[in-house]
Design goal:
- Strand 10 and strand 11 form a beta hairpin.
- Helix 1 runs parallel beside helix 6.
- This protein has six helices and eleven strands.
- Strands 5-2-1-6-7-11-10 form a seven-stranded mixed sheet, sandwiched between helices. A two-stranded antiparallel ribbon has the order 3-4. A two-stranded parallel ribbon has the order 8-9.
- 31% of the residues lie in helices and 27% in strands.
- The chain has a single domain, classed as Rossmann fold, CATH 3.40.50.880.
- It starts with a strand and ends with a helix.
- It is α/β, with parallel strands linked by helices.
């Protein structure tokens, strides 16, 4: 069974993480990668009209399968970068940045949602590309040389970007179709 790499860390958003985990797990071996092999704390993001920022509460716990430093990118078909606050911290991990660059160098499918764009920006792989993300991460994209597009799904080559968790189904439908196309060799 072909493998897909799913990046996790403390503060990864529950839906941004679990939707790809379960949807991709239907057809692929999903390997959860993180800074270390241990249990990570996912979070839920809520919007309240009395707050100017997103409210974050504890969500599920999820075990990683492999540490970034132990990953051989050639063993994986695709890479998924969920949102939440985790990317804010994970973008400083040099092993993860090199893994991300490798996927782009080999034109492998990469899916990013919400704050996942912060990892792409830190890896300097979105320069000249069209992307989408949540509006509050627009500057991360633009400062990194990407063109921000305010649409639910933006596909640029092998990069599949999504804004919000409520748009996950279209994002994963497009991404899994590309993975199936590549797996079948067409």
């Amino acid at each position: 069974m072909e493998k897909v790499l799913l990046v996790i860390g403390d503060g990864a958003e529950v839906i941004d993480t679990m939707v790809p985990l379960y949807r991709l797990g239907e057809d692929y071996q999903v390997v959860k990668a993180a800074p270390e092999v241990r249990t990570y704390n996912l979070v839920q993001h809520h919007h309240d009209s009395n707050w100017d920022v997103t409210i974050e509460t504890p969500g599920y716990k999820l075990d990683s399968d492999i540490a970034f430093r132990d990953i051989n990118p050639s063993e994986y078909l695709a890479l998924v970068l969920p949102g939440g606050r985790a990317p804010e911290f994970l973008r400083y991990d040099e092993d993860l940045l090199q893994i991300t660059r490798d996927f782009f160098e080999h034109d492998k499918p990469v899916a990013s949602i919400c704050h996942g764009i912060e990892i792409l920006a830190a890896a300097d792989v979105i320069r000249g590309r069209r992307v989408t993300t949540i509006p509050r991460c627009r500057l991360d994209a633009e400062f990194s040389g990407a063109s921000y597009v305010a649409e639910p799904l933006v596909v640029d080559g092998s990069l599949y970007c999504c804004r919000f968790k409520r748009e996950c189904s279209g994002w994963m439908k497009a991404f899994t179709a590309e993975l199936a196309r590549r797996s079948s060799g067409t």
